[in-house]
């Protein structure tokens, strides 16, 4: 439950957990009660899994991403989902030619909280501001948005696509987007590329 932040691991639900913990591999089939075989789900999503409305593939994808995002900061998953939802809602694409300001502005003391997402290339600081507080001291703020890599990762997570998650996190490519070490996504030019 701590691993999932006491919330359902289904990224489209994220309901607060009461007690349901799902065995990824059932105990009857040799799965145990160790943390690597358990996934926190709300009672509704847990029932959907057992009725086979949610695939085993999606469960494995959610578990993998929850584990990787929650080391060391378990709130990263919720921040990724919030940024994703806002960028989708307002059509803010980090790769668009016209800059559309992201919807979230953070104070300078939030940098440590967001550092993991920024250094992994899932989010980026798009603009910095230096303002004055009521007492005359400077108060830095900055705007954050998801990168193309971050958008692709959350899309794959919500879709329950472990191959797309792995490709995004490993620096591979998925859906015409290649993810490199620089944390910036480059669109792969499929046709008309000269050698």
From TrEMBL:
Any idea which GO molecular function terms this record carries? endonuclease activity; nucleic acid binding; zinc ion binding
Q: What Pfam families does the record point to?
A: HNH
List the Gene3D superfamilies hit by this protein, alphabetically. 1.10.30.50
Q: Which InterPro entries match?
A: HNH, HNH_nuc
Q: Which residues form the HNH nuclease domain?
A: 1-47
**Name of the protein:** HNH nuclease domain-containing protein
């Amino acid at each position: 439950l701590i691993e999932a932040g006491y919330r359902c691991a289904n990224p489209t639900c994220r309901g607060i957990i009461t007690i349901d913990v799902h065995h990824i591999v059932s105990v009857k089939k040799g799965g145990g009660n160790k943390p690597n075989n358990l996934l926190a789900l709300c009672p509704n999503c847990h029932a959907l899994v057992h009725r086979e409305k949610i695939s085993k593939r999606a469960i494995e994808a959610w578990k993998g991403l929850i584990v990787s995002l929650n080391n060391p900061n378990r709130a990263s998953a919720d921040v990724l989902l919030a940024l994703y939802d806002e960028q989708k809602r307002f059509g803010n694409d980090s790769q668009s030619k016209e800059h559309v300001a992201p919807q979230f502005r953070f104070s300078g003391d939030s940098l440590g909280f967001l550092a993991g997402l920024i250094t992994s290339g899932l989010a980026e600081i798009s603009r910095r501001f230096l303002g004055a507080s009521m007492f005359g001291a400077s108060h830095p703020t900055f705007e954050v948005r998801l990168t193309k890599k971050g958008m692709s990762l959350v899309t794959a997570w919500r879709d329950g696509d472990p191959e797309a998650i792995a490709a995004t996190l490993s620096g591979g490519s998925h859906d015409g987007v290649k993810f490199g070490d620089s944390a910036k996504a480059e669109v792969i030019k499929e046709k008309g590329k000269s050698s």
